[in-house]
Amino acid sequence: MKQMISGWRHVFKLDPDRQLDDRSLEAVCLSGTDAVMIGGSSGVTYDNTVDLLSRVRRFEVPCVLEISNLEAVVPGFDLYMIPIVLNAGHQDWIIGHHAQAIEQYGHLIPWEMLVPEGYLVLNPEATVAKVTKAKAPLEPVSARSYAQVADRLLQLPIVYLEYSGQIGDFELVADVRRTLDQAHLFYGGGIVDAETACRAAAVSDTVVVGNAVYDNLAGALETVAAVKGSAAAES
User: Fold this and answer.
1) Does residue 135 have a known ligand-binding role?
2) 164 labelled as ligand-binding?
3) Which positions, given as ranges, span the membrane (predicted)?
4) Long-range contacts: 33-36, Cβ < 8 Å, 24+?
5) Mean pLDDT, each 10-residue run in order, the chain (235 residues)
6) Is 171 annotated in some ligand binding site?
7) What pLDDT sits at residue 230?
């Protein structure tokens, strides 16, 4: 599981609650991205998740579900990403919903397919920040501390810095990455073209591209080669 994730440099994130035509979806799935992540902060249902999964499954790209709603958990994904929002203002998003899920569905959970993510929500205007009542933004020293809790204390395989809708503070991202011992650093937010993708790739392990798929598909597709090129240059 961790070995699979460590090979991901680029991921497209698709929202079941947003419309994407078949030609655009095909371009995303055949782009060379390492994985397609399905998930969203609102409007995610069982039906629209099943529909999007069935469309992505026509292609060979790995497809993972990032769970934000228990009612929208669908079988058939390659992995299930479980966000733990470290800077959430309500405990439900740190451990509450997780305990509820285990109470209701523990006997059905494929534990070997679950990947916990230590989330830091860093854009206070994002929907995810409002839903989780995230304490954002964070000073660099606080971001480092939260990240080290995830990495060293909780031993989570992923630390995910989520700016959701805006470009992040890449100095802070680089600073957090330097503090990590074993966790893989995901970055998401404001990646719209090759230039922003290269900047993100320079300070993170995996770049997640989401909104650009719907707002500027051509720019979003450019990000794959940009990120992969950055990885090749580093090696």
Assistant:
1) no
2) yes
3) none
4) 33/61, 33/224, 34/7, 34/8, 34/9, 34/10, 34/62, 34/206, 35/8, 35/11, 35/61, 35/62, 35/63, 35/64, 35/78, 36/11, 36/12, 36/61, 36/62, 36/63, 36/64
5) 84 97 98 97 93 98 94 93 96 93 90 96 95 96 98 97 95 98 97 97 98 97 94 60
6) no
7) 79
